[in-house]
Design goal:
This protein has about 90 residues and is an alpha/beta fold. Helix 1 packs across helix 2. It contains three helices and six strands, in the order βαβαβββαβ. The strands form two sheets. The chain has a four-stranded parallel sheet with strand order 1-2-3-6. It has a two-stranded antiparallel sheet with strand order 4-5. It has one domain. The radius of gyration is 12 Å and the shape is globular.
Amino acid sequence: MRIGLTGGGSSADKIVQQAQQAEAEGFTSLWYASSVAGDPLVPMAIAGRVTTSIELVQRYCGPNGWIAGYEGARVRSFAPPRTSSGYS
């Protein structure tokens, strides 16, 4: 079974702390919403610099609720292959 967490953090330090702790505790992924730092790619980039195995996933809310954000080329440019986009 793979278990992930919703990522968050009001500062870069808190994003780093959560990512490192989640990876150390064995969670398989962190999902970042568009409301975290204004763009999910920002916390994903921060978390990707301090982790080695946890998958980093973006999600964002569109006019019809939570929808997939397929920006794989942009995301994978900084942390291949631990990144993906998807529904929450």
